[in-house]
Write a structure and sequence with these properties.
Strand order of the largest sheet: 2-1-6-5-7
Number of strands: 9
Radius of gyration: 22 Å
Bound molecules: S-adenosyl-L-homocysteine
Largest sheet: 5 strands, parallel
Oligomer: single chain
């Protein structure tokens, strides 16, 4: 999977590309991340990417031409020209695990990182095929959101995660064999490691029992309970067994 990132701060990505998952995935060839300096697509001496907003007001706005040029240069390079062009924006649709799943099916994504007051609206209207937000808050640039989107997406690519980080159990993971309309799973169950007792807090006994069926049941119940308490909105979409329903019923009473 190839990511082309259009940014005025390509160096911003240096550290995340040199650590952990993104480093491994790019080294192993699962993903390629190419950084493009928006200023390389300007045509004036000062390499101007922004200008004052029409109508007045504070701040600066990214001009459309350099962004158009950058995307068109990428399009001229590749055979498959219908790749998604994603503008990172607090006004976009919310990035969720389901959206990350959807993005992970693409072979090529272009990510546009805004700055300042944002990007000339004609980019959102006519160039971007999608606008994505990483949450209902405002950051100063699209670089962190682009990094978040890439990590969430790349860890879903086949072969990227080792066994020890299996994602089937992760929060939001769609259960194996679920119907196509199921978009999310439960929150993950709690995890513990040694020591079995830390400052008087003991690890739940059942986890030390070696009884796999008991442990499975305990984990399922804790995941259901956490989801019910914190994210009842997720519960509504998850396929539940009779045993699950009984447990939830017992929590409610
Ligand atoms: N004035 C704009 C915010 C601009 S923030 C507004 O209120 O909608 C500057 C840039 O940071 C944006 O262009 C976008 O690329 C990025 N950005 C800020 N918050 C974001 C978020 N929650 N999700 C994705 N991108 C974000």
């Amino acid at each position: 999977m190839t990511f082309d990132i259009i940014t005025i701060f390509p160096e911003f990505f240096t550290s995340i590309l040199e650590h952990g998952l993104l480093k491994r995935a790019t080294a192993a060839g699962h993903a390629a991340i190419r950084l493009h300096d928006l200023r390389d697509y300007t045509d004036d001496r000062h390499r101007t990417v922004d200008d004052r907003p029409f109508g007045g007001g504070p701040g600066m706005v990214f001009k459309p031409e350099p962004i158009y040029r950058a995307v068109e240069a990428l399009r001229s390079e590749v055979q498959e020209k219908n790749f998604p062009v994603i503008l990172l924006s607090p006004q976009g649709r919310l990035l969720t695990q389901a959206v990350a799943e959807e993005l992970s099916q693409a072979a090529h994504l272009v990510l546009i990182c805004g700055r300042y007051e944002g990007v000339d609206e004609r980019v959102a209207e006519n160039l971007a095929t999608d606008e994505i937000s990483i949450g209902d808050f405002v950051l100063s640039g699209g670089e962190l959101p682009a990094a978040v989107l890439m990590e969430a997406t790349i860890r879903l690519l086949p072969g990227v995660l080792g066994n020890e980080e299996s994602r089937e159990q992760d929060s939001f993971a769609v259960p194996a064999g679920a119907a196509a309309e199921v978009r999310h799973g439960l929150l993950d169950c709690p995890h513990y490691t040694r020591p079995a007792e830390f400052r008087n807090w003991k690890v739940p006994e059942v986890l030390l029992s070696g009884d796999h069926e008991q442990i499975r049941q305990w984990r399922r119940r804790r995941a259901l309970e956490k989801t019910w308490r914190r994210r009842p909105d997720l519960l509504a979409q998850v396929p539940l067994s009779a045993e699950d329903r009984q447990w939830l019923e017992s929590l409610r009473t």
